[in-house]
Amino acid sequence: MLLSVLLAAGPEGPGGADGSGGGSGTAPATLEDAQETATNAAGWVEENWSTWLSIGLRVALILVIAITLRHFIRKAITKAISRMNRGAQALDGIALGGLLANAERRRQRSEAIGSVLRSVTTFLIMGSAGLMVLGAFEINLAPLLASAGVAGIALGFGARNLVTDFLSGVFMILEDQYGVGDSIDAGVATGEVIEVGLRVTKLRGDNGAIWYVRNGEVKRIANRSQGWATAHVDVTVRPDEDLERLRTLLTEVGDDLAKDEPFNEQLWGPVEVLGLDSVTLDAMVIHVSGKTMPGKAVGVERELRWRIKQALDAAGIRFIGAEPPAEEEEDGPPPPPVAAPSAYGSAMSPQSVAASPIPPPANLNK
Q: Which of 28-42, 160-174, 300-314, 327-341 has the lowest mean pLDDT?
């Protein structure tokens, strides 16, 4: 207010208040002019202060509601994730519905889901609040939204691989396709999952190497750790063996395996002799199978082959391909050695003719 009055009054000329000695040629401002200017400024402020106050209160209310809503929603998500983690710790190592509950797997999955939900919540709430604040200042949002759309399209084309990896990771986690501790075949790599991220999945290969697989590159997933697995063993024997005897022997081996630790927990069903897979003139193949825990089929197969081999050896049944026992040699002098046939044994053979001495030439003087 005081600044407006001073600017309206202006500096007085060097000649005094009457302006007789001034060289600018302009009339000096009077006190009435300054008072009129101040009155106009005060009137303008009085007319618009309610609008300013309304806009300020609206902006403050929008920000307070947005921050409060964001805080409570993020807190609710965090509590839900903590409850999921406590439930995962209580179920650690328990077979639930054919799937072994893994605390670390469930923890990482819940943390990833919580991070995604918190980020989406913050983006939606604060983005909506920002647009409402701009609308409170009567700013036209149409050009801004159009520019944001163009920038989004450009970013989508430039970082489409990153967006693809992120979206694939989100749906993979939400659908629980695999988790920490699972043995999977991702097409590009095979191994045990050691970390699940929104962009990259880490696999530990059979030789110890760590594979970093982008989620967007995974086209198919074979999870060997969900549900149950099957141990398959093929027994190849001679076609003249007694089938009923073989069935009884293999069934006893499977029953003994199911009673011993730790295979009594790894086997989820009896070892069954499914019958003949093939019969030829030289061999016949008997198929043995059993349902196991996820990831335990290979160990069960190795132990089952070991025990079947021992049982067949004890019963005198040989696998196809095994060498027959050596026959005992009769006592007596060894046979005389026989020389190998030679081309020089015949005097008419080309080798003998070529090796014979050349006769001396005849006397030409006679």
A: 327-341
DSSP category for residue 361: P
List pLDDT tens digits, range 99-147: 444 566 677 677 777 877 888 889 889 888 888 888 888 777 777 777 7
Distance, first Cα to last Cα, the chain: 161
357-363 — which CB contacts under 8 Å span 24+ positions?
Answer: none
List the beta bridge partners of residue 267.
292
pTM for this structure? Answer: 0.49
278: left (phi over 0), alpha (psi -120 to 50) or beta: beta
> How far, in Å, CA of 282 to CA of 275, rounded?
18
Question: Over 80: is that where the pLDDT of 344 sits?
Answer: no
Distance between CA atoms of residues 25 and 21, nearest Å: 10
192 within 8 A of 181, measured Cβ to Cβ: yes
**Closest to 190 measured CA to CA, from 169, 175, 172, 211:** 211
Cβ neighbours for 164, distance < 8 A, ≥ 6 positions apart = 216
Q: How many CB atoms lie within 10 A of CB 4?
A: 14
**Pseudo-torsion of CA 149, 150, 156, 157, nearest 10°?**
160
- Distance separating alpha carbons of residues 240 and 23, to the nearest angstrom: 136
Residue 172 near residue 98 (C-beta atoms within 8 A) = no
Closest CA relative to residue 290, chosen from 315, 316, 253, 326:
253
Q: Which two tokens stand for residue 186?
A: 């991702």
pLDDT band at 179 (very low <50, low <70, confident <90, very high): confident
Question: pLDDT tens, 209-255?
Answer: 899 999 888 888 888 877 788 889 998 888 888 888 999 999 999 88
d(CA 215, CA 117): 19
Q: What is the dihedral of CA 316, 317, 318, 320, to 10 degrees?
A: 170
